[in-house]
Amino acid sequence: xxxxxxxxxxxxxxxxxxxxxxxxxxxxxxxxxxxxxxxxxxxxxxxxxxxxxxxxxxxxxxxxxxxxxxxxxxxxxxxxxxxxxxxxxxxxxxxxxxxxxxxxxxxxxxxxxxxxxxxxxxxxxxxxxxxxxxxxxxxxxxxxxxxxxxxxxxxxxxxxxxxxxxxxxxxxxxxxxxxxxxxxxxxxxxxxxxxxxxxxxxxxxxxxxxxxxxxxxxxxxxxxxxxxxxxxxxxxxxxxxxxxxxxxxxxxxxxxxxxxx
Length: 261
Hints:
Elements: H1 2-6, H2 11-20, E1 27-33, E2 37-43, E3 53-54, E4 58-59, H3 69-81, E5 84-90, H4 102-117, E6 131-134, H5 139-145, H6 174-177, H7 187-198, H8 200-207, H9 211-260
Parallel strand pairs: 1-5, 5-6
Antiparallel strand pairs: 1-2, 2-3, 2-4
């Protein structure tokens, strides 16, 4: 365990590795460990303007994490094919306490299994790259900003002593809301948040308004303009046909009045 923790890098080191190798097509691998699968995504440097690519998740045959040789081969293939130079692993802290709950325990268990199956990281290129843990929800900074949500060393929090003023809301189940924090995160969102923190200007320029969204909006606006134009044309034709129909009707009425006289 201590050797595994010694391999952990600061998030800034992974970003620095991508900065150095962005011109040769290197990418960063994002991993999101779940109870029955591993979300996998790769992303290039934000200066390229290429969005994050979500790959087929690594699914376990049983309903729990089971690392085998096939998992190691899959990670090695992804790292080789996409020229991975760093790894970002989701770190799903508990939203209400900011502590390491069951979801974080699954991440540690999966990393330990990978470490043991690769003979201390020597047989897998995964641990030969700088990798870090990343809290995409920024739970700890949010708790520091709100004194009511700060938890001391004994696990006490002032927010726990408040009376429930919303009895109509659904009941709180710790087994569902605390033990499955990893289900609230999407692997591409983890990279997008990491990218936004380390390259805020590049992220704003490259991904604030994706090209696909621009094209979609343009198509929608073009479709609306075409619809309005066709509506105006059809309305004009309808009014013209109504006017041409009304003229003979007036003539017939005038002739009938003359005959009556």
